[in-house]
Model the fold of this input.
Amino acid sequence: MWVLIVFAFGGVVVASWYWSGAQRVKRQLRTARPWPIGELPENTLGRVIGAAQPLDHVMHGPLTGRSCVYYIAKVEQLRSTGRSSHWRTLVSEEQGVPFVLVDQSGRAIVDPTGAKLALNFDGRSSSGTFDDATPIEEAFLTKYGLRSQGWVFNKRIRYTEACIEVGETIAVLGAGVREPDPTAIPAEGYRAAPPTRLRLTSSHAYPLVISDDPSTTQRA
Done:
């Protein structure tokens, strides 16, 4: 009986992981056809892969200070209730700005508003009884009226952050439009078509799907 219960519980855990939002996003990207940025036609759903670069603004991860164009920052506190304990989310902050995606074939302007994202939480730290929060962590808590210190000891807190860092390789699935590229070198000859760039934004039919997971950035 206990063996069946363990297997059933394991099945639930695996199913929950497989159907989680992040895993669905990654599967969408892995199964989509990859296109060079300069060759993806207008209004055609495709996956493009390139390096994220700033357009107008650069952000900084609030927990790590990393230069980025998108971040998700989370703070959780360990709470105990009798014999059990769990992590309670205190803060979840997410921000992004339009950015440029570049490969050898061209450029795309990406507006992440309304996008589905699966980013790796590779910025991790913690504070606790004998481990004070760093100044940047304390400042982030203070922003939300929180403190790392309890009545006597420090609270047990973990901090996680995911970023699209400047220069990081990411994958974007979407359908976009072509527009003149004011930063491109003009084409030679008066009959040559003017250089264009791709603009990717979310729509009701095709919300953008974005990930920095290495499994989604393989072109083959």
